[in-house]
Amino acid sequence: MYRNGVLESEDFPVADISDYLADPDTTVWLDFCGPTAEDLAAISEELGLHALAVEDALSECQRAKIDCYDSHSFLTAYAVRMAEGSSRLERSEVAAFITKQALVTVRKDEHFDIDAVVARWESAADSAKSGVAFLLHGLLDYIVDGHFDAAQVLDERIEELEDLVFDDQPDHPSLQRRSLDLRKSLVHLRRVVVPMREVVSTVMRHDMGLVDEPMHPYYQDVYDHVLRASEWTESLRDLITTIRETQLNLQGYRLNTIMKKVTSWAAIIAVPTAVTGFYGQNVPYPGFQEVWGFWASAAAIVVLSVGLYVLFRRRDWL
């Protein structure tokens, strides 16, 4: 519980929240991790939360959004992080009930690092007088920075993939697997990043009454990060698509090169076959049973084979 921007109390019973909120100078933050319906029922009575908002807080895989009710707002967002040693994106869903004097966060699992959010609040304690706007900013700032960091990591992974595509002997199955993993991660990242533009812009609206003038520049900074992360994600999707197309084009080019070489050598090998087949007839022909006939056939094989080899080399077929 904060009073006039100063932290005064922690770890108090949920039943005391209504007593604290009777003072207009107080702000309360309550955090749940994996709550049950009974847990949320208690705070719902204290704050008068809407039944639909409570239902959404308990449901899984909600879309990132913000819903407005008479006495409060309900927000859903996702924190993301890259799994160690892979291109897989991990998500942690968090919901928040926002009233004039209280912020209630509902984490679906322990993977959402709430301690990092608290650290942001402690590092910017000078702005705590803004109450709920201050608390909500720290939460959104942490989430959006995570989106930005994930986009940066994916950008680095895509650059690594670009280098592998142009290797002399690329590992095509590995490239295909990595590019598919990156595409899936980018799809998941886009699903959580793009809706945040609407969420942050809605929070900043004056008719919402959530953001006061001192906190408005901070929210504007968060909104700028949301736009940059969204645009970055879109550009990375186009880039990974281009890399995949380039990989296929390179495969086709290498296949054409191999086919040209195989065809050229097949043409050269066909010369001795044709000449020896001609001289292997069972009827008399010029040079039949003569020594010079053998040398004539050998010379024809050498001259024609060398001629074809030189011709194919000039045309870069060999």
Automatic annotation (TrEMBL):
The keyword Membrane applies. Keywords: Cell membrane, Membrane, Transmembrane, Transmembrane helix, Transport. InterPro entries: CorA_cytoplasmic_dom, CorA_TM1_TM2, MgTranspt_CorA/ZnTranspt_ZntB. It holds the Pfam family CorA. It is a multi-pass membrane protein. The chain crosses the membrane at residues 262-280, 292-312. It comes from the Bacteria. It is found in: Cell membrane. Its main location: membrane. The keyword DNA-binding does not apply. PANTHER family: CORA FAMILY METAL ION TRANSPORTER (EUROFUNG). This is Magnesium transporter CorA family protein. It comes from Saccharopolyspora taberi.
